[in-house]
Specification:
binds ligand F0G; six-stranded mixed β-sheet; 379 residues; 10 strands
Length: 379
């Protein structure tokens, strides 16, 4: 017996998988690194410790090729950009978008220009952008300022803007909702997300809405028929719960925040670009926004790492910190199913991880010294 004749099953990324649900050019060749198809892990120990009757899953987006959810949007945006003849991409970023843009541009053989706030992006993300050969421009200003600059630049120079104001980004990111529905057999009752620029909560709402078959209304981006934010709702969709860091919480203030600050640098954003869309997703879904202190966010990050073996970056942990806060306040219906998106891998930000962990113990390289520590810690 030989294996010849077996059908090939190699996963080749989400553009190939979901092409019929993506509004890209028919002749576009996928620029892919095998993104998507991330695990939906059921939490065991945290729900047991909290004593809750809720099924909690985490969508571990840190297992994408550049270790964040941005790859979903980037594969589609860069695929379309290359098909249109673009030779360079540009973005402003708190780190993950720049890492992803740099990798996909490298894959496509085009140039990536990335604007990052000086000193305010996590080390791993900076290393990625540099390694992939992006032209890294540090600005003496925050993400929101960088966003203003790249939007203006994209109008004046032959570069494609690949922040989430590029509609292909959200089209790619909506596929996370499709995968969740495929994995559970139905949409969850609630979906918890960290919110920064607000593109991802918007993208998930597009995905869930398309699945519910509500693709009749005009798209706010393309004025076409791609099903963006449909107005009439009858299909089942989750309530969208958006969580922000208190120091960077425009959706809680009801207004833009000029000097955002949080340890979760990925969501250190005060002027979200998808402001109206995210409000629409929240209202239409019957969801809400809530805010968390940096301490709550870091505690949830540590809890996931120590109690479930899942290492996500601080911003990602806002989804679980928010869920815990709302569960304690009795805001979720018992017996429900919940998905929390863990947007980026913990290795992105080693500094913050090490700062909140206890120091390693240093001893002589002797049997007795090591044995004493083992016995002391098992007593
Ligand atoms: N989590 C992580 C790890 C992120 O990197 C981001 C955004 C978010 C959550 C928020 O998602 O902006 O769609 O609401 N990072 C962007 C960046 C802004 O430049 O990497 P959002």
């Amino acid at each position: 017996m030989t294996n010849t004749g077996q059908a090939a099953t190699r996963y080749t990324g989400l553009v190939d998988k979901y092409r019929d649900r993506l509004p890209i050019r028919a002749d576009a060749q996928a620029v892919s690194l095998g993104e998507g198809d991330t695990p939906l892990v059921r939490l065991e120990n945290i729900p047991a410790a909290l004593g809750i009757d809720i099924d909690v899953y985490v969508k571990y987006e840190g297992l994408n090729p550049t270790s964040s959810f941005k790859d979903r949007g980037m594969t589609v945006a860069v695929t379309q950009a290359v098909a249109e003849g673009s030779r360079a991409v540009i973005c402003a970023s708190t780190g993950n978008t720049s890492a992803s843009a740099a990798a996909y541009a490298a894959r496509a053989g085009i140039i990536a220009f990335v604007l990052i706030p000086e000193g305010k992006i996590a080390l791993g993300k900076l290393a990625q952008a540099m390694m992939h050969g992006a032209l890294v421009i540090q600005i003496k200003g925050n993400f929101d300022r960088g966003m203003g600059l790249v939007k203006a630049l994209a109008d004046e120079a032959p570069v494609t803007l690949v922040n989430s104001v590029n509609p292909y980004r959200l089209q790619g990111q909506k596929t996370a909702a499709f995968e969740i529905i495929e994995a559970l057999g139905k949409p969850p009752d609630y979906h918890c997300l960290p919110v920064g620029n607000a593109g991802n909560i918007t993208a998930h709402w597009i995905g869930y809405s398309e699945h519910a078959g509500l693709n009749t209304a005009a798209c706010a981006f393309c004025a076409g028929d791609c099903g963006f934010l449909p107005r009439s709702a009858d299909g089942r969709r989750p309530r969208m719960l958006g969580y922000q860091a208190s120091g960077a919480a425009p959706f809680l203030r009801g207004a833009m925040v000029d000097k955002p600050e949080t340890v979760a640098t990925a969501i250190r954003i005060g002027h979200p670009q998808s402001w109206d869309f995210a409000w629409a997703a929240s209202r239409e879904s019957g969801g809400w926004f809530a805010e968390l202190s940096d301490e709550q966010i870091l505690a949830a990050q540590k809890m996931l790492a120590e109690q479930e073996g899942i290492f996500c970056e601080p911003a990602s942990a806002a989804s679980v910190a928010g869920l815990i806060q709302d569960l304690r306040a009795g805001k979720l219906v018992a017996g429900s199913s919940v998905v929390c998106t863990l947007t980026g891998h913990g290795l992105k930000d080693p500094d913050t991880a090490i700062r909140q962990s206890s120091e390693p113990i240093t001893v002589e390289a002797e049997m007795d010294a090591v044995k004493r520590i083992i016995l002391d810690n098992m007593a």
